Amino acid sequence: MLFQFGFYSSLLLITFSQGLIYSILLLMKGFRTGNKSNYWLSFFIFLCSIYIAPWMLGFAGWYDNQPYRDILFYTPLQHLFFIGPVIYCYTQSLLNAHFRFNKKQLFHFIPGVLYLIYIVSIWTYDTFIIKDYYFYTDGMDKDFDSWYQKSGLLSMVIYFIISLRYYTIYKKVIFQVVSYADRILLRWIQNYLIAFLIMLLLPIFFDGMAYFYPHLKTYTGSWWYFLFFSIVMYYIAITGYSNPVYSSIPFKMAANNINQVVLLSENKNAIEEEFVIDIDFETVSENNLLNIEEWKSRVQTLIYEHSMFINSELTLTDVAKKLNTNAAIISKTINQGFKMNFNDFINTYRIEAVKQAFAVGAHQKTTLLGIAFDCGFNSKATFNRAFKKNTGFSPKEYLKEYSFTAP
After folding, report:
1. How far apart are CA 125 and CA 119, in angstroms?
2. Which among 61, 172, 192, 286 counts the fewest CB atoms within 10 Å?
3. Confidence of residue 281 (pLDDT cuts 50, 70, 90)
4. Could you tell me which residues are beta bridge partners of residue 341?
């Protein structure tokens, strides 16, 4: 097989081959763990890898030799209409344990399928009907048509925005239903979305730079764009493969209220248990049938007398079960009665327990982190952040401010 090794073709070959390898590794990880988000990330890395293939193969001599030229012409390698939907499906599968690929999700892939049909139609007409170039008389690969590149970029921007919105909703959901929200905020998804945003900004950046350096508009100059694109792809592949955290919170959007979600049972055999909860306590809906003050008292008594806040894995459902009610009532009680989300509500008890430990000198016998763990926190970062938010001081500043002996 023809491949002319050189500076331009060889560097892209490295990132191209590494992308394919990580795509396979992610696929295998998906089979091994059963987590479907790995399949979507594998698909994304594969699409990114073949996206740079025309430039790599072009510098390797394919556009100048047959039959390789026709292979590049009639094989779509830049699937711009697929990348955006794959990003969106990956985001959902990573954040929502309830996510399933269905007919509604399939709708997002229609533009990509239509583009495939378009390329197949061109190949059929040129190869079997007129047996000559008709659509390729200009010698330009259809993947590089201006309309396709611009509409493809627009599609990816749109799916980036709705993926970002989905992550925003997810953050609101977990703060309302678990007491360990910081641990499953998934910093990876933030970094992943930022990396994808860089991918989207790269063509805009290079177009701007081409105004000052026209050489960047040439075939050789454009190579730099694909090099930087492949580097970002490589970062996503490596860090995505090593990401070990996935959300186990199943939910779906409420049908008629953007500030509500339907919280589903984590037990697949009891999926019929569904509770509508408000994800924004500042805009929570009123419910005159709910005696807030009575429920406030019951919740406070349960949390304090049974020290439930010590459980670092405490969830809204756990509290609801102890009080023989459902998660929706407890969520509404905390939102309306205490004007805070569930995560912050439980952390206030943990912080009070930490301050009581300071008062009796526990910090002189053990570490601050040890006290934090004993009071229900699960990480140093979460403890420091919650303590600062609650008291206005870091733990060490608090000890100094209130004249406790520092550890």
Report:
1. 10
2. 286
3. low
4. none
Instruction: Please say if the pLDDT value at position 404 is more than 70.
Output: no
How far apart CA 346 and CA 220 sit, in angstroms, is 58
Q: What angle do CA 184, 188, 190 make, to 5 degrees?
A: 95
Residues 299, 277 contacting (CB under 8 angstroms):
no
Contact 66, 136 (CB under 8 A): no
pLDDT higher than 50, residue 272: no
297: phi then psi, degrees, rounded to nearest 5? -60, -45
In sequence order, the β-bridge partners of residue 402 are: none
**Which residues 6+ apart lie within 8 Å of 113 measured at CB?**
none
Q: How confident is the model at residue 64 (pLDDT cuts 50, 70, 90)?
A: very high
Cβ neighbours, 10 Å, residue 103 = 6
Distance between CA 176 and CA 301 in Å, rounded?
20
- Asked whether the beta carbons of 226 and 182 are under 8 A apart, the reply is no
pLDDT per residue as tens digits for the range 108-157: 999 999 999 999 999 999 989 998 888 888 888 999 999 999 999 999 99
The pTM assigned to this predicted structure is: 0.90
What totals of helices (H) and strands (E) does the chain contain, helices first?
18, 3
The answer to whether the beta carbons of residues 327 and 320 sit under 8 Å apart is yes
Strand pairing partners for 263? 251, 275
Rg over alpha carbons for the chain, rounded to the nearest Å, is 27
Of 258, 251, 257, residue with least CA distance to 275:
251
Tokens of 148: 């396709």
Residue 381 phi, psi (nearest 5) = -65, -45
DSSP string, 27-53: HHHHHHH--THHHHHHHHHHHHHHHSH
